[in-house]
Amino acid sequence: MNLILTIAWTHVRYRARQTLVAIAGVMTGVGFSIMMAAMMEGSQDDFIQTLVNALPHISVTDELREPNRQPADIRYAAAEFHGLTPEVRRPGIKNPMATIASLQTWVPGALTPSVQSKAVLRFAGRNITVSIVGIDPRTEAEVSNLATHMRQGSLHSLYRASNAILLGDRLASKIGARVNSNITLASAEGANMSATVVGTFHSGFRMTDETTGYVLLKTAQVLEKQTGVVNEIRVRTRDPMEARLISERIGEQTGYRSISWQEAQEDLLSAITVRNVLMYTIVGAILLVASFGTYNIISTITHEKTRDIAILKSLGFRDRTIRTIFICEALLVGLVGAALGWIFGYLLTRGLASLEFKTPFSDYNHLPVIYSVKHYLLATAVALASSFVAGYFPARAAARVHPVDIIRGAT
Amino acid sequence: MSMPLIEARRVTKILGGVVPVTLVRDIDLKIMPREFIAITGPSGSGKSSLLYLLGLLDLPTDGDVLIDGRSTTAMTEDERAEVRLARLGFVFQFHFLLPEFSITENVALPMRAQGRLSPRAILTRAEELLGSLGLGDHRRKTPDQLSGGQRQRVAVARALANDPPVILADEPTGSLDSVSTAQVFGILRDLVALDGKTVVAVTHDLNLAAQMHRRIHVVDGQVQKDATAAADGHAPA
Question: Which residue out of A404, A405, A406 would a mutagenesis test of the B interface target, given it has the greatest number of B Cβ atoms within 10 Å?
Fold first, then answer.
């Protein structure tokens, strides 16, 4: 073995108890860091995944990017008009199918038209305000997971009856409706229709499952009293992370308001960033505290070994060699602690993942965790860096020992 | 005439502080090959300080120490360490062996630090040195399993590890009984007589000093007397 490692190993081996305590400190720090990172990033990934799956990656609505210019503005070069009734704009996206066809030429992903509407659902004497989404069952499966969320019936069940509707399972059970039940929908536009429940779905999101119903596009258009209207184009991009850029391009091309899922959930995503900063600060703090143990052991060894250091220097050992010996000791503690911390962290993560939690907001009852090599490497890097710092200062002090002072003191 | 192995030129060492203390003042000295030199003097006279200056363990406040004709004042600490490792061997009053290592490993340390020999050659040489000093049967033992005299012999073996031309010894027999003293002194004497080494030893023991070729008597940090055995009427051993 290399001379430096031989001496370093001998020093830590002969201080077995203190060394083990220091190693245990690093191990605990690394273990908890790994567990925490696994839990935080796991829940973050799960959250984003759910978000990405639940929402269209990009939603193009019929709102214009800039307010419509009024006819008087176009005709007269006046600075200000008063008392004019603004021209009413017909809701919906103009030429939706042509727009979709045009976007399909370059958008990497799938697009589908839809109609968003609000209605009051009446059944068995109960009135509940619900969101009605008009969809095209042929393309819906390409942009959302609705098809996989079906509990009863399927997307194509919407073709089974005129005015067919798919209800969220919670909504159905709340009003006591079943498949084939006839319900009444009354829209804000004054349209009333009788509809047949042809299936139920369960998205896992309480809000969606309690307040949403899916109908065919034309049914929703009837409710909106706008034949042929499409007020939203939903897009699912191949890479969800590119949604923001694609959304900007769509907005520029169509002139309509185009919102990516990142923009729609900006508050939540910025909260995740803050959460990550907090997480890494805490993980850093844990490892820093663990490094105090390393500092303690290396400091003690340095102090106890002052005479040996003096004698090594008198033999001709360089300052750098002396410094390296003690830094190696610290790194040895850090490395062994980190290696044990991997096992500890893995077991902690497994344990945490097996715990069950009940949450009213979703169906998931296990903490989502992620097993990532990155976490292990990051915790090890921080542990080694703090071990290095913890060892450096005592090592530097050791290298500065003046042999004559020690030899003279000993004699 | 051959070049001095070590030469002190007007070497002065003053310890700074509120009241500066002069340890060594204006010493001129030449240490030639194959000399067996005793540095004597009362306690606090500066003899150990002089030895540390000659051995590059300490830096003079003024003057210069030359090793093999090379000035060491301007050397970096690393260069001085290199000279110590290759050209000088140290034996102190206390053995100063590393307690966790076997005596073979202790002897091997300077050779491993120098890194010129293979691990096998280092082991062979360490065992040979220990064997030549009568410690062949103890080579696997740690220092605490040996007597004081045996430990000091291990220290001598370690000083000889890199085959330096000069051995500097600071009271090498100061903590030994008379039998061990005789053994260790005999070894040092043989190093000069048989191996052609130069030995410079600080000692309080005037009987031992009388058996050495040259005696440098230091008082108040200055050389009061520097005499060879023939000059002051003593017969060297």
Answer: A404
Question: Residue B71 — φ and ψ, nearest 5°?
Answer: -65, 140
Provide the pairing of β-strand B36-40 with B62-67. unpaired
Give the chain B residue nearest A9 (alpha carbons).
B100
State whether B78 and A403 contact (CB < 8 Å): no
Under a CB-based contact definition with an 8 Å cutoff, are residues A21 and A297 in contact?
Answer: yes
Q: Is A133 helix (H, G, I), strand (E, B) or coil?
A: strand
Residues of chain B in contact with residue A4, where contact means CB-CB under 8 angstroms, are none
Residues 6+ apart with CB under 8 A from A198: A153, A157, A158, A160, A161, A164, A165, A166, A179, A180
Q: Do A410 and B96 touch (CB under 8 A)?
A: yes
| pLDDT for A1 | 63
8 A C-beta contact, residue A123 and residue A194: no
Stretch among A161-165, A323-327, A363-367, B101-105 having the lowest mean pLDDT: A363-367
CB of A52 within 8 A of CB of A240?
Answer: yes
Among A183, A182, A152, A156, smallest CA distance to A168 is for A152
Structure-token match 């010493």, residue found: B27
Helix H or strand E segment including B49: helix B47-54
User: What does the CA dihedral A328, A333, A334, A338 come to, rounded to 10 degrees?
Assistant: 140
Angle at B211 between CA B209 and CA B215, to 5 degrees: 45
CB contact under 8 A, A3 and B112: yes
- The structure tokens listed for A385 are 């860096």
Average pLDDT over all residues of chain A: 87
Using an 8 Å Cβ cutoff, are A205 and A359 in contact? no
Cβ–Cβ under 8 Å, residues B140 and B61 = no
Helix (H, G, I), strand (E, B) or coil at B147: coil
Whether the full predicted model's pTM is greater than 0.80, yes or no, is no
* CA dihedral of B156, B161, B162, B166, whole degrees rounded to 10: 10
What phi and psi, each to the nearest 5 degrees, are found at residue A384? -70, -40
